Amino acid sequence: MSPVWRALAVALGMLSAFFAFYTAPQLCPKCGAGMEQGFVLDNTYGARIVSQWAAGAPLKSFWTGTKLPDEKLVPIGTYRCSSCGFLELYARQEFAAK
Length: 98
Ligand SMILES: [Zn+2]
Hints:
Helix content: 10-25%
Bound molecules: zinc ion
Order of helices and strands: HEEEEEEEE
Distance between the termini: 24 Å
Oligomer: single chain
Number of domains: 1
Number of strands: 8
Shape: flat
Strand content: 25-35%
């Protein structure tokens, strides 16, 4: 990777981290207590996965239960109020399991 591309990749990484920090909820909008990051778990056959956002209204499928759109699915990150339990959800790639 050339130094220019490496510098651009570093700058994009810093911009992404900056965006994630400043868009993450710090205080609960309902009661003002602190929010903690988590995720909504999907238990499937023999697997535990992070829930994902899909565009459009859900449509039934005879074979799979629900049809999926062609577009890419986006992992959902969830913030939970430590006092009242209010949940705030964000669909962003950074919330994928690492
Ligand atoms: Zn709260």
